[in-house]
């Protein structure tokens, strides 16, 4: 008897989740469309819709054109019913985003702040998050949690930064970034978070390699829409693949790493102002920038082709460079194809969808995804 009761409760939970997920993935649906798509009875669908509406998750959104009878009510998901905060910690700044259930950025801010492994810095993070939420003018009960993206390797339980050269952290001395945050919190590697955001809520792509080209080079491997962490939580450290024997010195102390050739700082250091100015000068025909860009693409093409040979799936370019590279991607595809043993073109090479604050968005989406799975 207890088993039957438990089983019935589980069936009801699954039905509820399927109904909400279907509405979530479609702009508008009628009750009859939901019942037909899911093979459920109208009373079952109707009761679930009533419950979801009372919880503020769905709403009636107009009516459909009549097909002869009464016009059917259109039902939609309320995007702002729940929200999540993403915080991206870098060596030089802190970025915060507020995202809704659709993964859209509702609000964002970036604060210049040099990282310090200190309690004062951790206290400031808590104050910054609290202030960010406070000034968003939202119902705080809607906030599912705060995700924190860090440029480093995490422990198996995702609670500790085991190592971060970018932040100067090693030997498990990472600070407790969540200490002063009064919401459920989760940590993620920044490149993994950005990769997760790239494939989140998509149907067309299941497997991909995300190459993050920011001030350091990283990435993520996504297999069947799941992140592959590796045996030691340090998969996809693409920046430290050897691109050239005894080549340029990398920030890690080794020589010839991809990071030394393809990080965004390789280009931003070519101007007095930064990456935006580099690409602005490149568009204006700056000879120095053209030379640097040609060399940059030649190294990037080798790295992209290597990733294609290793994983045989789409390679997505993201990070700071990903925000600028779209108009140059055809040139890069041709270069990558020249080194490809099996394919005549580089159509597998894609440009990221999330061109701003991808890591912050991705780590916030961890809370959104958990909520969607439990509705």
Automatic annotation (TrEMBL):
Molecular function GO terms recorded: DNA binding; kinase activity
InterPro entries in the cross-refs: ArsR-like_HTH, ATPase_NBD, ROK, WH-like_DNA-bd_sf, WH_DNA-bd_sf
Superkingdom assignment: Bacteria
Protein name, as recorded: Transcriptional regulator/sugar kinase
Role, per record: Transcriptional repressor of xylose-utilizing enzymes.
GO biological process: D-xylose metabolic process
Top-level taxonomy: Bacteria, Bacillati, Bacillota, Bacilli, Bacillales
Pfam families for the chain: HTH_24, ROK
The keyword Transferase is assigned to this record: yes
Keywords assigned: Carbohydrate metabolism, DNA-binding, Kinase, Transferase, Xylose metabolism
SUPFAM superfamilies per record: Actin-like ATPase domain, Winged helix' DNA-binding domain
UniProt-listed CDD domains: HTH_ARSR
Family from the record: Belongs to the ROK (NagC/XylR) family.
Membrane-spanning parts: none
Cited Gene3D superfamilies: 3.30.420.40, Winged helix-like DNA-binding domain superfamily/Winged helix DNA-binding domain (1.10.10.10)
């Amino acid at each position: 008897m207890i088993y039957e009761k438990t089983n019935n409760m589980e069936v009801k939970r699954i039905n509820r989740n399927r109904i909400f997920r279907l509405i979530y993935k479609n702009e508008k649906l009628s009750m009859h469309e939901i019942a037909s798509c899911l093979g459920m009875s109208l009373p079952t669908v109707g009761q679930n819709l009533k419950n979801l509406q009372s919880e503020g998750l769905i709403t009636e959104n107009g009516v459909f054109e009549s097909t002869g009878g009464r016009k059917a009510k259109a039902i939609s998901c309320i995007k702002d019913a729940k929200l999540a905060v993403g915080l991206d910690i870098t060596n030089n700044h802190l970025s915060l985003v507020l995202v809704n259930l659709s993964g859209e950025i509702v609000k964002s801010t970036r604060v210049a702040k040099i990282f310090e492994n200190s309690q004062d810095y951790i206290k400031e993070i808590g104050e910054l998050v609290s202030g960010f939420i406070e000034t968003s003018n939202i119902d705080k009960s809607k906030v599912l949690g705060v995700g924190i993206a860090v440029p480093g390797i995490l422990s198996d339980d995702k609670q500790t930064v085991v190592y971060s050269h970018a932040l100067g952290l090693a030997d498990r001395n990472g600070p407790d970034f969540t200490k002063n945050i009064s919401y459920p919190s989760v940590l993620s590697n920044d490149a993994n978070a950005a990769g997760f955001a790239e494939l989140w809520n998509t149907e067309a792509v299941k497997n991909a390699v995300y190459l993050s080209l920011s001030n350091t080079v990283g990435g993520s491997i996504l297999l069947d829409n799941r992140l592959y962490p590796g045996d030691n939580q340090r998969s996809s450290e693409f920046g430290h693949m050897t691109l050239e024997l005894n080549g340029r010195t990398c920030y890690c102390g080794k020589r010839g790493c991809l990071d030394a050739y393809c990080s965004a700082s390789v280009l931003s250091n070519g101007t007095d102002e930064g990456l935006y100015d580099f690409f602005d000068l490149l568009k204006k025909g700056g000879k120095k920038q053209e030379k640097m860009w040609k060399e940059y693409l030649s190294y990037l093409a080798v790295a992209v082709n290597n990733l294609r040979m290793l994983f045989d799936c789409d390679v997505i370019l993201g990070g700071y460079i990903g925000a600028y590279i779209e108009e140059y991607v055809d040139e890069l595809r041709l270069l990558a194809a020249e080194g490809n043993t099996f394919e005549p073109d580089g159509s597998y090479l894609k440009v990221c969808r999330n061109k701003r604050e991808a890591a912050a968005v991705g780590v916030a989406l961890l809370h959104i995804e958990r909520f969607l799975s439990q509705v």
